[in-house]
Amino acid sequence: MSGNLPGSDKDSMEVGDQDTDQVAESVELEVAQDQQPVSSLFAPALEVIQKLIQDLTSELEVLRKDAREKEVACNKVIETDCCGILSKYLSTIYVTGILRAK
Length: 102
Hints:
The chain is an all-alpha fold. The chain has one domain (10-101). It is 87% helix and 0% strand. Residues 1-25 are annotated as: Disordered.
């Protein structure tokens, strides 16, 4: 055998290359005819993304407001507890001072 495979001679490769070129040109032509502006291709997706961003921003504001309200409530509880503890401590010191003075 001389090592020639079917379709491996130079003439058949040129024909194959020509076929490939014709197919590529045909595909390019079809793509060029079907092309739309990029903005029109992505417009629906952009609208959905913008709506999601708006929804998430609104939800974030609600969560921030809720967190602020909880923080204020928590601070009031802490303040009340601290004042109660301080008041008991001071009264204990006062009573102890009076008892020692007698």
